[in-house]
Amino acid sequence: MASEDSREVVLRLNQQQLELVDQTIGRTEAGDRADLFLQALQEFHSENAS
Amino acid sequence: MTERKLLYEHVMEPATGKAVELLAGQILRIEQVGVGGQCADFNCFNLHDYKEHFHTGRTRHMHGMHPTTGDFLWSAPPRDRPIAAILADTVRTNDVLYPRCSGLLFEYQFGAAVHTNCHDIQAEAQREFGLTSDDVHDSFNFFMHTGVDQSGHPFIADNRAEQGDYVEIIALIDLLAVPNVCGADIMATSNFELKPLRIAIYEGLPEDLAQFEGRPERGPFVNQRTTADLAAQPIKADRELYRDDSYVPNFVNYPISIAEVSINLNPEQQAMLDELVATGEYGSTDADVLRYVFFSWWISRFMQGPKHLDQLASD
């Protein structure tokens, strides 16, 4: 749910990429596509940001 | 330990090669004799369908430039499957980076128009089974000691193999296996001297093949296409290329369609994304970076087999 202090990022993905995204949801705790991208952001940041 | 039964042996003299049938489960040993230090080039084909053959590219992708014990020899797409495996390797300096040497190399680089070279030796050995010079493919170079310098160029170093050193390859399907004594005597490949190599075929023991059963690379996958899958495509019999007027394109997953996915970031998530954008390593816009992040994360967490992302970038 968007709130006043949220920022929207719109990704453009093709049908093959979306298929991979949707298959991955079932392999993680994510509830939907947005949740999955946020989980990836959290984990990637924790492993790669200084 | 049970002895393997010797089925065949032969010494390949310099300037020669030998095409041998190597049935599934049988082992080909290539062994240094004399002073050692001899490179062996190698081709192999599906014995029942020569259009399936060894592929340096897939092998290099899966196992790096110096495959050794435990690694597979892969066939080319669309077959794309392990067709043999390295059972033993006492030197561990093999190469799948360099192509076979050819007559042209010696003519262009040394001014020698008629010279022993792996392409022509392979072609002559393969001729025993009806293959032609055009059927020779890029070789697996056993005992060839190579690397890549800091400018990205390949180099050939001294051959480290000594008398008695050997490699053993076990066939996972019925193969025509074609080793040859590398003909490069004026390159460093074999320490500037041509020497014989002994080849031997053994009946493999059950435990030899068992080492490679259950490996995920062996599938089956629908994209490891078989001779039966390709049976409807006859092998082209003439050399000329001409347009098929009845051709109708049928590309995989064409047309590519695009959909938008909206993601709302809270302030903490925005800070994370901003930090990654600021590095300049993952793209320039929020969307570019988030897409890069997602698929990099996916590769790191879920991808099977060798991962292709630059490890230097993440160090």
Describe what you observe in this structure.
The complex is a heterodimer of chains A (50) and B (315). Chain A has 50 residues and is of the alpha+beta class. Chain A is 54% helix and 16% strand. Chain A contains 2 helices and 1 strand. In chain A, 20% of the residues are buried. With 315 residues, chain B is α+β, with helices and mostly antiparallel strands. In chain B, 20% of the residues lie in helices and 25% in strands. The mean pLDDT of chain B is 96. Chain B has 7 helices and 14 strands. The interface between A and B is medium-sized, with 35 and 33 residues.
Q: What is the CA–CA distance across the termini of chain A?
A: 29 Å
Count of DSSP H/I helices of chain A: 2
* Beta-strand residue fraction of chain B: 15-25%
Radius of gyration of chain A: 12 Å
Assign a percent range to the helix content of chain A. Answer: 40-55%
User: Helices and strands of chain B: which structural class?
Assistant: alpha+beta
In short:
The complex is a heterodimer of chains A (50) and B (315). Chain A is α+β, with helices and mostly antiparallel strands.
Write the topology of this structure.
The complex is a heterodimer of chains A (50) and B (315).
Chain A: E1 7-14, H1 15-25, H2 33-48
Chain B: E1 5-12, E2 20-22, E3 26-32, E4 40-46, E5 49-53, H1 56-63, E6 72-74, E7 82-89, H2 103-110, H3 118-126, E8 140-142, E9 146-148, E10 154-156, E11 166-171, E12 175-181, E13 197-203, H4 206-210, E14 258-265, H5 267-279, H6 286-302, H7 311-314
Antiparallel strand pairs in B: 1-13, 2-12, 3-11, 3-13, 4-5, 4-8, 4-12, 6-7, 7-11, 9-10
Task: List its salient traits.
heterodimer; A: 50 residues; alpha+beta; B: 315 residues; five-stranded antiparallel sheet; 7 helices; 25% strand; globular
